[in-house]
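#struct-help
A.M.: can someone run this one for me? Single chain, 104 residues.
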Amino acid sequence: MDERRIRKSCHSGHSLVDPETALRIDISARVSSMTWILLAVCTLTLAGCGGAAKVSTPPADPRADYQSSLDAYQACVSSNLNNVQACEDKRVQMETSERAYRGR
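D.P.: on it. Structure tokens below:
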């Protein structure tokens, strides 16, 4: 049977690999290609994760940030003398800015 396959392939111009082996090789090559493509996609997808979490930029000028929040709090208190609770968020922001400015 091998001689017939060889003779047939010599006369017909086909390779010596039988169709079943050729199919296995073709599927194997496709799976290998798909694996590499999937790996590349996963790598590129995960490459961007966590980049923003690592970068934390402090305020350019903590003193200016504190002064700005202090001014906003004082303006709020001046306009809400009967309801100082309305300025609670501005007070918290001012205290946070002050701690950052003083380094605590």
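A.M.: thanks! The helical segments are 2-12, 19-47, 51-54, 62-79, 88-102.
D.P.: also worth noting: DSSP finds five helices and no strands in the chain.
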